[in-house]
Amino acid sequence: MTSACGQDNYEVQRKALVDELRRDSLVAVEYGAPPLSEAVLDSIGNVPRHEFVPSTHRIYAYENHPLPIGGGQTISQPYIVALMTELADVSADETVLEIGTGSGYQAAVLAGFAKHVYTIEIVEMLGLRAAQDLERLGYDNVTVRIGDGYAGWPEEAPFDAIVVTAAPDEVPQPLIDQLKVGGHMVIPVGPVDEVQVLKLLSKDADGDLAEKNVIPVRFVPLTRDPN
Ligand code: SAH
Q1: Which of 140, 149, 217, 224 makes an SS bond possible with 99, Cβ 3.0 to 4.6 Å?
Q2: Cα–Cα distance between 30 and 111 in angstroms, integer?
Q3: Residue 73, beta-bridge partner list
Q4: How remote is the CA of residue 164 from the centroid of ligand 1, in Å?
């Protein structure tokens, strides 16, 4: 819906979602998650999630759930998008790599904090659609590439933050190599179709990684390009 009335309605729903995430964050803190900052909550309040979900699911766009986006893939739950953005801890002069563009929503949220977001999607149809949506909505600091994100994006590395939104069994070595000293990687790790652990990896001056398990999560698997 593009009528003034429809847009107002989305704004009301978005505000209610922000209030819900603020409350959820209080509970998640008890399980070891960091609190969501007002800056991250504001970004959830500003990015039009309904523009990133298929029209058939738009009425659910501001519920705190994942939704199907085609190709067997999903747009992540808003709380998880907010949490990953919080953990990535990006500032305005920094560049971010996202693996798993999906709908483009997480990239749009990160774009509000970063100088540039590079994002890779393995399913061509999804990557092309996300690139189109991001451009239409004016996110001009996001670049989408179609490919296997396991290899990262060496031409633009190193990155201040890397956000992986599909779950591998182990952290891909190319992504570790492409993380800057002082940078953070947020990544779900674990077996397909089981609960994974959302990890926060931070690289110290010696290139060593400190690893923190944040919360249990469930993501689609990181698939590999057979070529
Ligand atoms: N961040 C997305 C949600 C991602 S769902 C959003 O905001 O909507 C995970 C996505 O990762 C899916 O679109 C899936 O196709 C993609 N994916 C899986 N394996 C991948 C890989 N090796 N490289 C890049 N993308 C991958």
Answers
A1: 149
A2: 29
A3: 70
A4: 8
- Nearest ligand 1 atom to the CA of 102 is 13
Site to probe by mutation for ligand 1, drawn from 73, 124, 175, 219 as the one with most ligand atoms within 8 Å of Cβ, is: 73
Task: Report whether 133 contacts 51 (CB < 8 A).
Answer: yes
Domains of the chain: 69-217 (3.40.50.150)
Q: pLDDT tens digits for the chain (227 residues)?
A: 444 456 789 999 999 999 999 999 999 999 899 999 999 999 999 999 999 999 999 999 999 999 999 988 999 999 999 999 999 999 999 999 999 999 999 999 999 999 999 999 999 999 999 999 999 999 999 999 999 999 999 999 999 999 999 999 999 999 999 999 999 999 999 998 889 999 999 999 998 999 999 999 999 999 987 76
Q: State how far the Cα of 96 lies from the Cα of 113, in Å rounded to an integer.
A: 10
Element (H, E) at 189: strand 179-189
Q: Model pTM?
A: 0.96
